[in-house]
Design a protein that fits this description.
- The protein is an alpha/beta fold.
- The protein has 2 domains: 4-117 and 272-283, Quinolinate phosphoribosyl transferase, N-terminal domain (Aldehyde Oxidoreductase, domain 3, Alpha-Beta Complex), CATH 3.90.1170; 123-269, Alpha-Beta Barrel (TIM Barrel).
- It is built from 11 helices and 12 strands.
- Helix 1 (4-22) packs across helix 3 (55-65) and helix 3 runs antiparallel to helix 4.
- The longest helix is centred in the middle third of the chain and has 31 residues, at 94-124.
Length: 284
């Protein structure tokens, strides 16, 4: 759940922007049918099995349109819901329910989809010391929601944005003139409290990163044998992250090598939505 300060400063403006995108001047369909306030209620129904995530955001959409709107939920974020389950109800002005429905469901479906996809992936690593990480491959202006959903699904967040940590990727290394030079420049510039991660594409780069004192070495898009050799080179002298070409078929083999982290952009960019509907709107 988002704390009140985060909600007000970082979440509300994004929800308001989403509402403004959907209601540029007025909700014509609703206004032509219902010119004045009329109280009603509607059911929130899960239409397929999955992990629920984003209930607070669902509520907030309606609250920002009308602060008297009320929601009641029968599950919590992170809980499993089966197809057909009534997971909540919303009460208040039916005009607000109609106008906010699509935006609220878009958030809830997307966040629940990511949480569910992450859950099934994280379950593969259950009982192992390897942590599952997300990436910055998120939908623009939806990162705060999508990374929250990863946590709810049992995954872990990599850096939130470019200000969080030093991560030297292929183009940084190219711009600096090499791995060692890039790490040297990072150590001179960055405060000592920041860890330095280096993305490597071959075993020679792994050796250079280790010799230059990288804190975390990413083995990027390497095959199983290369990763195995990379682990032997590093030999516990740096943390190891594996990224690229992660599948359900190879994730356990990689974890069994003792890698510290496995990162997957698919958690956010490839997760399907969880089908959830707002039904049975009627007056009260």
């Amino acid at each position: 759940m988002f704390d009140p300060i985060t909600l007000k400063l970082n979440v509300d403006p994004l929800i308001i922007s989403a509402l403004q995108e959907d209601i540029s001047s007025e909700d014509v369909s609703t206004n032509c049918m219902m010119p004045s306030e009329k109280l009603g209620e509607a059911d929130l129904i899960c239409k397929e099995d999955g992990i629920i995530c984003g209930l607070q955001i669902f509520s907030r959409v309606f609250e920002l349109l009308e602060d008297r709107m009320k929601t009641e939920f029968f599950v919590k974020d992170g809980e499993w819901a089966e197809k057909g389950k009534l997971i909540g109800k919303i009460y208040g002005d039916m005009r607000v329910i109609l106008s906010g429905e699509r935006t609220a469901l878009n958030y809830l479906q997307r966040m629940s989809g990511i949480a569910s996809y992450t859950y099934f992936t994280a379950e593969l690593l259950k009982g192992r010391n390897t942590k599952l990480l997300d990436t910055r491959k998120t939908t623009p202006n939806n990162r705060i929601f999508e990374k929250y959903a990863v946590r709810i699904g049992g995954g872990n967040n990599h850096r939130y944005n470019l200000s969080d940590a030093v991560m030297l990727k292929d183009n940084h290394i190219g711009a600096a003139g090499g791995v060692k030079e890039a790490i040297r420049m990072a150590k001179e510039y960055a405060p000592f409290v920041r860890k330095i991660e280096v993305e490597t594409e071959n075993l020679e780069m792994v050796k250079e990163a280790l010799e230059a004192g990288a804190d975390i070495i990413m083995l990027d898009n390497m095959n199983y044998e290369e990763i195995k050799q990379g682990m032997e080179i590093i030999e516990g002298k740096a943390l190891v992250e594996v990224s690229g070409n992660i599948t359900k078929e190879n994730i356990l083999k990689l974890a069994d090598l003792g890698v510290d982290f496995i990162s997957s952009g698919a958690l956010t960019h490839s997760a399907p939505i969880l089908d959830i509907s707002l039904k049975n709107l009627h007056s009260i």
